Amino acid sequence: MKELIDYTLHEMIQGPEQSNIKFGFDFLDDVAASTYRYGLTIIAGEVQIGKTAFVLNVVKNILQQKGSVLYISNRDTNKDIIRKLIGICAQVNPSHDGEYTEGEIADLQVASELLGHSNFALEYAHGESIEHVYRRATNELKKWDLIIVDDIQGFCGDKFSEGVFVLRRLAWECGCPIWALTNEKRAIKTVLGKNSLSMNRKNMLARRAILQNNLMFLTRDDYYRMPGQHDNTAKIMLKTRRMNGHFFTVENRLNVDMNTLRYWE
To answer: What is the rounded CA–CA span in Å between residue 77 and residue 60?
Structure first.
């Protein structure tokens, strides 16, 4: 217990080492959102709303600054992630089945070389536990600028609150931000401040675990419309937990092209 108390006091006084790497979006890099540079951030949103695409845009920005990223997924395979990331870097539709123009081919080659020489560690860990994520992140004597876990409930199953606590501890031990993606309904409702959850013990623990971290909610207006209706914008809501326990909430709109999976301000 003494060692645990000493460790906690040290972290409270010193805090994690801050990185000079930028996320590439002003609303994440400014002072108001500085807490997103360490600790655990839970990124919630509906299935196929664009969470992975947004995160990969941040990955691209970090890699272009020679930063290092660890991406652990139990949903998308390594090939799926690389295909999407190359498309984002080249601003080309990664799912295009036809022939590419000479310019697009050149852009794809440049993107491929960027990723091939980058500090990007990628692991497809389908069927693994949250403890595997912890071991994978701590095995290497490497300072990551960002660790991404996609998606958290796939690693922890019905033990959602336990999984959140493991990642929160990991973020402080690694001294870098961890972004955990989820479409878990309890997470979405908690981030949005909806109190329609049945207050059984499991839901109460999940809600408490979620509210102890930074929160991000992503949505697109066209997601809820009929096919063919698009306004090419996404809304991201940030909820940053302050020392007094209250949340500081900021909403931001980004341009988005879901063909190339590109987000920009």
So the answer is: 18
